[in-house]
Amino acid sequence: MKNIGVVGFGRFGQFWARQLMRDFSVTIADINPDVRRACLTDAKFTSLTEVCRRSDCLFLCVPINRFESVLDEIAPHIRSGMTVLDVCSVKEHPARAMGEKLTIPGIDLIATHPMFGPDSGRDGLNGLRLVMSPVSGEGTEYRYWRTYFTNLGVKVVEISPAEHDRLAAYTQGITHYVGRVLKRLELSPTVIDTKSFGMLLSVVDQTCNDTLELFQDLQNYNRFTVEMRRELDHAMHVVDSHLLGSCETGRIMRIGIQESRGCLNEAAVEQFCRTHHVESFQTLYFRRAEFVLESLQKGQIDRGVFALATTRANYVKETLEALTTYPCKILDTIDIATGHCLATRLEVELVEVDTIVSHPQLLVECAPALKDRYKHMKLVATDTQEFRDIAGPNFFMDLTDGDTCARYLAEGKLQDRLALIVSPVEAEVFGLRIHEPNLQGSGDDNRTTFAWATRREYR
Fold first, then answer.
1. Are 437 and 431 in contact (CB under 8 A)?
2. Nearest to 290 by CA among 244, 331, 321
3. 448: which strand partners?
4. What are the CA-CA distances from residue 369 to residues 52, 291, 421 (Å)?
5. Beta-sheet strands, E only, within 316-366
6. What are phi and psi for residue 429, nearest 5 degrees?
7. Paired strand residues for 112
8. Kind of pairing, strands 447-454 and 303-310?
9. CB-facing half-sphere around the CA of 216: CA atoms within 13 A
10. Sign of the CA dihedral with 207 first, then 209, 210, and 215 last
């Protein structure tokens, strides 16, 4: 009778030891001293060194991410005539590691992957699959174990580690990935469940019953899973794109813009529509680039117009952050000369002002003038806690564009001692007094680049 050593006594190690103990003398080693609480009745625990000394054959049932360190520990104790098998759920990594670290002459190295576990194998192994691939050795031990597994009713599949990992990425890898995704949705049985929904729940239960460590190792140690996840993500976008339909409505084009009435985005819309021969359109105001891009992705609008960059302040931070969450397809860009003015309520003199409030982007664009002529005033960006304190509880903090600030100042909802940096159109619309009409400086060297974007369609 062969003496078998099982290294690692986690969920699968316990399951595998039970199978082997029916036919062999089994000794177990595990780094966790508490594992004895789950000890089998006649299991024999000892040190890793002693397991290696007693065993003719070692089954390494350790997490994939710890596999190499375990090989380093057992390497000094491996002797000629021994056989070492792994049971990892990926095959290229452990096969390569065993070949590199266990170089003792006269040993057999076998890469295996039981395509089952404690849950799927609880009712027996008959008909279940196990992958085998020889790493080194003369082949006698490989044939022995192939015959042994076959006699258990297991279907032995003989393929290379690379072919295993390629297939596993799109079978086991995708199953565990989808199971974890569905788990995030917190799905639960209902009174109207279909059989197919019940199957989905069983996928969640079975995959998430394994450790998060195993899931991460399945994804991180198989070089084919990155492509699998990329293709899965693309496929989901294709299906979603079909549900949303074409970006062209065939009627009035819906155009969502960043900021509100009186802003430079409106001028950009006019130019884009002339360039692209759009005669009928409706402008929808979303105030922030994030809301424009979100609506574009959801199919609620056909085009989005938003600021990408300015010559003085470089890229618009708000837009860049939104693009990381809501990717789109930019069809065209244009540059428009930017104009900003310093405005107050009609009855307020500039000498009464001690604070200038502005969108943070405009503070950068107008920095030279502010530093030169208004350094005695406090500069407050609308995305700061300081502005929240000034505005008070009645101000909607998600509407901190120039239009909203101008309206609230005109309505007396902001303090009189404030001046705003807004566009001339916004000042005119809300009846504000312009004290400096060209705050950004003379000439048209301060320009804003606007994007004409559509939803990214996947095919």
1. no
2. 321
3. 310, 336
4. 78, 32, 12
5. 329-337, 341-344, 355-358
6. -60, -40
7. 132
8. antiparallel
9. 6
10. positive
Q: Where are the alpha helices (DSSP H) in 160-288?
A: 161-168, 174-184, 195-208, 212-220, 225-244, 264-275
Q: In what order do the strands lie in the sheet with 355-358?
A: 378-381, 355-358, 418-422, 341-344, 433-436
Write the Ramachandran bin of 153: left for phi over 0, alpha for psi from -120 to 50, otherwise beta. left
**Which amino acid is residue 337, in one-letter code?**
A
Tokens 């930019």 map to which residue?
330
Percent of residues, the chain, with pLDDT higher than 70: 92
Domains 253-338+449-454 and 341-439 share a fold: yes
Tokens of 235: 């496929």
Q: Is the pLDDT of residue 402 over 60?
A: yes
**pLDDT tens across 224-251, in order?**
999 999 999 989 988 887 787 665 555 7
392/171 Cα distance (integer angstroms): 56
Architecture of the CATH domain 341-439: 3-Layer(aba) Sandwich (3.40)
CB 336 within 8 A of CB 271: yes
CA distance 343 to 431: 10
Please check whether residue 377 is in contact with residue 354, taking contact to mean a CB–CB distance below 8 angstroms. Answer: yes
101-115, 253-267, 268-282, 330-344 — which is least confidently predicted? 253-267
Q: Is residue 364 helix, strand or coil?
A: helix
Q: Where are the domains of the chain?
A: 3-159, 167-244, 253-338+449-454, 341-439
Would you say 288 and 258 are in contact if contact means Cβ atoms under 8 Å apart?
yes
Show the tokens assigned to 255. 């155009």
The fold of the 253-338+449-454 domain, in CATH, is D-Maltodextrin-Binding Protein; domain 2 (3.40.190)
Q: Is 3-159 a CATH 3.40.50.720 domain? A: yes
d(CA 187, CA 196): 13
